[in-house]
Amino acid sequence: MGEEAGEEAGEEAGSGMDMQEAAERSDAMLDAVLEAIDPEVRWAHGPTTTRACGVTRRRTVMTVVSAERRQTFLDRAETFWRKNDYRIKAVNKDEKFPAVYAVTKNGFGVSVSFRGEGQAFLEADSPCVRESDVAAPASEPNGPAYEDVYPLPRPNVRSDFWSGAEG
């Protein structure tokens, strides 16, 4: 138990890793959870941010997820994380802005949350790592890239499963 607490604080989690490597690990984690959400949703890269000793990668879901399907979406992400030995830190059951937060054994925090107009956002935060330059994500979004567009548009892709009959 003591070792896990140390990892959570990031003490050994980022040892030897720099921001670019942490960003690549974050990208892989986000890509994996998006692949696990079935049926597939369209997504685009959100902004990358760096802080004193860590990096955050983001994905923005462009598929409309109806209010009735948001919990299903969150459940699929949570199930994937549990299967892959992530620890679920918190679940926000808010009707309008639900979210799930998890952490990996090596201190990466991941989340999926619903925000304005029901748009889903995924984030991965690294533990403390060595400072370095951070390149743009290498993975290609499965829809428009929206390069140099910020903020990204609201969800605009319909799905028979995710979007429901509204709108």
Short description:
With 167 residues, this protein is α+β, with helices and mostly antiparallel strands. It has three helices and seven strands, in the order ααβββαββββ.
Q: What characteristic shape results from the CA principal axes?
A: globular
Described by strand count, sense and barrel closure, the largest sheet is: 7 strands, antiparallel
Number-wise, the strands total 7
Q: Please bin the fraction of helical residues.
A: 10-25%
Report low-confidence residues grouped into runs of 5 or more: 1-13
State the helix count: 3
Radius of gyration: 16 Å
Strand content: 15-25%
* Average of per-residue pLDDT values: 90
> Can you tell me the number of structural domains?
1
The separation of the N and C termini measures 49 Å
SSE run:
HHEEEHEEEE
**Helix-and-strand structural type:** alpha+beta
Tags for this model:
3 helices, 23% helix, alpha+beta, single chain, globular, 167 residues, disordered N terminus, 7-stranded antiparallel sheet
Notes on the structure:
With 167 residues, this protein is of the alpha+beta class. The protein has helices at residues 2-8, 19-36, 70-83; strands spanning 43-45, 49-50, 55-61, 87-92, 99-103, 109-114, 120-125. The chain has one domain. The chain is built from three helices and seven strands, in the order H-H-E-E-E-H-E-E-E-E. Strands 1, 2, 3, 4, 5, 6 and 7 form a seven-stranded antiparallel β-sheet that branches. The longest helix has 18 residues, at 19-36. It is globular. Residues 1-13 have low confidence and may be disordered.
